[in-house]
Write a structure and sequence with these properties.
83 residues; mainly alpha; 73% helix; elongated
């Protein structure tokens, strides 16, 4: 009798665990990025390419790091001016 009770409890626990796992895999679809997010990503890509080219060409000061370069480049691109 005790074995039946234990088996029933284990079966119920497994059923709830599997149901919870099925619900966990159902996620909301990701919403599309806003226009501002897309623009920021494009600016970051452009600045990244400029950074790589400048580093390879030795045009960047050895002490300059990416965050400082990114800040200046992002500001310049937002204003719409070229280097």
């Amino acid at each position: 009798m005790m074995i039946r009770v234990v088996n029933a409890a284990l079966a119920a626990a497994m059923t709830f665990a599997l149901a919870g796992a099925a619900q966990a895999t159902e996620t909301k679809p990701k919403k599309a990025p806003s226009a501002a997010q897309v623009a920021a990503r494009e600016r970051m890509s452009k600045c990244s390419l400029e950074w790589k080219e400048a580093k390879a060409g030795g045009k960047v000061d050895k002490t300059m790091k990416w965050p400082a370069f990114w800040s200046a480049c992002n500001k310049r691109l937002k204003e719409g001016t070229k280097a």
